[in-house]
Design a protein that fits this description.
Helix content is 45%, strand content 5%. The protein is mainly alpha-helical. The protein has a two-stranded parallel ribbon with strand order 1-2. Helix 3 crosses helix 4 (60-70). The longest helix has 13 residues, at 77-89. The radius of gyration is 14 Å and the shape is globular. The N and C termini lie far apart (35 Å).
Length: 110
C-alpha cells in the first residue's frame, strides 16, 4: 500500500521495510536502536531521502539525528504531519531538534 501510494504521488520507492510489529501497541515500543538500524539498512547511494511512515512509531528524534549521519533528508511522518497542521492553522512552528525539514522554514505561517 505504501509503495503504491508513493508511486502514484510521483515518487520512486527504491526500498521499503516493514518492522513487522505483532500489534499496533508494540509499534510505539520499537527500540530507537531498531529504528536507527532500519534507516541504515534502507540507505544507499541510490536513495535521495528516507521517509518513515506509521504515526505510532517514535521516529521524530531518530530521523533528525539520522540526517546528520546519513547526510540526506530523513522525514518522520509525524514531523510532516506537524508541519501540515501548522500550515493549516497558520501557526508558528517550533523546529528545535525536529530535523532539516522544519529548520528550513524560517518564518511562521501567519
Amino acid at each position: 500500500m505504501v509503495r503504491a501510494y508513493m508511486t502514484e504521488a510521483g515518487f520512486e520507492v527504491v526500498r521499503l521495510k516493514g518492522l513487522a510489529c505483532k500489534s499496533p501497541r508494540l509499534i510505539a515500543q520499537v527500540p530507537l536502536a531498531d529504528i536507527r538500524a532500519a534507516l541504515r539498512e534502507l540507505d544507499g547511494n541510490d536513495v535521495d531521502a528516507l521517509l518513515q511512515v506509521g504515526t505510532a512509531l517514535p521516529a521524530v528524534a531518530v530521523a533528525a539525528e539520522a540526517e546528520r549521519w546519513l547526510g540526506k533528508p530523513v522525514l518522520a511522518i509525524n514531523t510532516v504531519s506537524y508541519w501540515t497542521r501548522s500550515a493549516v492553522a497558520e501557526s508558528e512552528i517550533v523546529s528545535s531538534g525536529l530535523g532539516a525539514f522544519l529548520r528550513s522554514i524560517d518564518a511562521p505561517f501567519r
